[in-house]
């Protein structure tokens, strides 16, 4: 009995990630189906629900299933890497913030019924925080005698936030629970606060560049958040709920909330275009609105307490996932940026009972372990071991989930020099490669990603 | 102007982790101080608060500061590694669970005022989930036609849970928000469910072994959770709120809730000892209590729906952090297991203005970058760049925070063959080593950790 025969009952046990071991309930929703509670459906939402990336729990509230968690973990990793580079420090603030803090800044009233609130057994009212300016200011205020030497201080967290949206919609795009990266900066004066602000904006540019989907940084309105300066990061998409104006003459790019839509507020040109954007990041130079209300001070050289100058910077992490899928996907096929795809490549071995089965089996195990040795593919290869399905059926599924690379081990694996079919969804190409060429293909891709 | 002089204004910029760049508000609390809301104080809570690991936000609710997040991240990493080994898949369930699910299992009433509840703008009542048996059962029930081939299914998450404790106490040990790793298993019959149960228990043994603090697995009572079999994982400590009975004759080790405290329920021996334990993990073989109530079924070979057999397995992650500090620490000095210490080693260079300053500066930069190349120390070395303090003062601080290794660059750095003083807090030793010996010391330690 050879290794193939031994393994035949439970195939491919040596391969780390096998599709049959992944909980991915596929659930085809008829196109004209009405959603629960009349939620409006976006393309990304429909595809992510149908293909088992997320699953609805309640209106505006979703389970992340294993493939969704993998994509999210990749995004979190990018964020942590870039935050480290600017010396931002990771913290975790509690979900529940005492309502008295929000009362003191006036936001308990401003947010009104958008806030989830609860009363504890001691009759204290808390909010499920949608953001943490009050909490972090109160934390800083609680530290006695912070010297000017401690600044700039940059604290961030990646935690769930909550908002009782009137109309949750578009899945993760506007949910009632969402994952946000929120960073708060503290500086001793406005000049250094502006310096920190620019540094964080550069960091956001780096994060969006790593994600790899074209983004737009535009001037934003400070709105109810307050402060003196604000920028927004957008992905352009028809379903975007913001409208962005770009002036073809002076280059001004801004949310129409800030500048209007008919002519450029900077150069008065009427040569402007309007497009829809999905807001995925927002930065605010806040000044002392929160630090003054909550007494977040530092001690200057004469030991006199002075209000700190704050910045607040948000990235909608769960929204980014939905937005990149929205922007890149086709009507019936999801697409992911290479950096966030749940798996970079999927391997499809021959169907059981086919004449290629045994040769394909050995080849598959070898090529899986070879590819796993490449840093760009380590723990990023998935094997579609549903060998009771034809190769064709499995290719269709792989295209729908949008794994960037599909490696098919088909009839050409029987040749003297076995060939693999490599489908590159990003380039929309399909080529036959031998083992050596296949490895080289990925090595070069990896080099290019790192060089870019 | 040499490199040292150039760098003198902002020293040690080449070193990745510098203490002056870490937000760690030290806050000495008088021993007889009354806590807010009469919270009871444990040693770990006092030390973690005083030394800037956590900070209180509200009763039973804490900010994790950067050093606390680092320790927590190490614990999460261990958990993820071991979960992967048993094929458990990571998911994220929403914090808010609709109250109707908890009503259907009777637990809305059972938990009563321990639950945080809220009502949304549509007058729907939700709970801030303390655990997710209902949510996961509802998820499985929502997937139509799961075949028996899909099982065993193991889904886990590491998310915040909530409980409106009457008396929050001991800091992270019994908070109102806590981080939990909760795993839910589904099997097609009780026999395979028991097999999965044993596999997860083995996995928990591996996790606690990696954490490295002596633990005890004891028989537990199923209590309100239900089911037929339960085990608890404990750290023994005086402040532990559970009492554990061990029979010296037959070896039975169990929570007294299950077996009483006067004689062994297995062999009737009265040769028993009682000790206090902090419960940090709990496993339950649940049977079909939840799956039946919420219709979590699979289809057998005849396509007939059958209730799934569940297991539920919790690890109190934030509680583990507090418990290991509680067990290991001295009255005024924190101690961490090597695996969870915020940094493995701290380096203390000479005081500014001392005769060793310049020689020590170059030596410090070199030894930092050398040690960073060791896998066991990569991104795990902290430099105490508060060079305005004496070496002695900084050693006291380092001992209080409990970095397992303290490397002092003192007067012996001026010798022909410079020597470092290495304080090993775990062995309570202090030895002088040259550069080569220092590297070897850590290399050997790393090998031992991996061999054990």
UniProtKB/TrEMBL annotation, chains A, B:
Q: Which reaction does it catalyse?
A: tRNA(Pro) + L-proline + ATP = L-prolyl-tRNA(Pro) + AMP + diphosphate
**What domain of life does the native source organism fall in?**
Eukaryota
Name of this protein: Probable proline--tRNA ligase, mitochondrial
What are the recorded Gene Ontology BP terms?
prolyl-tRNA aminoacylation
Keywords assigned: Aminoacyl-tRNA synthetase, ATP-binding, Ligase, Nucleotide-binding, Protein biosynthesis
SUPFAM superfamilies of this UniProt entry? Class II aaRS ABD-related, Class II aaRS and biotin synthetases
The cross-references to Gene3D superfamilies, in alphabetical order and at most eight, read: Anticodon-binding domain (3.40.50.800), Bira Bifunctional Protein, Domain 2 (3.30.930.10)
Q: What is its EC number?
A: 6.1.1.15
Q: Which InterPro entries match?
A: aa-tRNA-synt_IIb, aa-tRNA-synth_II, aa-tRNA-synth_II/BPL/LPL, Anticodon-bd, Anticodon-bd_dom_sf, Pro-tRNA-ligase_IIa, Pro-tRNA_synthetase, ProRS_core_prok
* One GO MF term attached to the UniProt entry: proline-tRNA ligase activity
GO CC, alphabetical: mitochondrion
Q: Does the keyword tRNA-binding apply?
A: no
Where is each Aminoacyl-transfer RNA synthetases class-II family profile domain found? 39-337
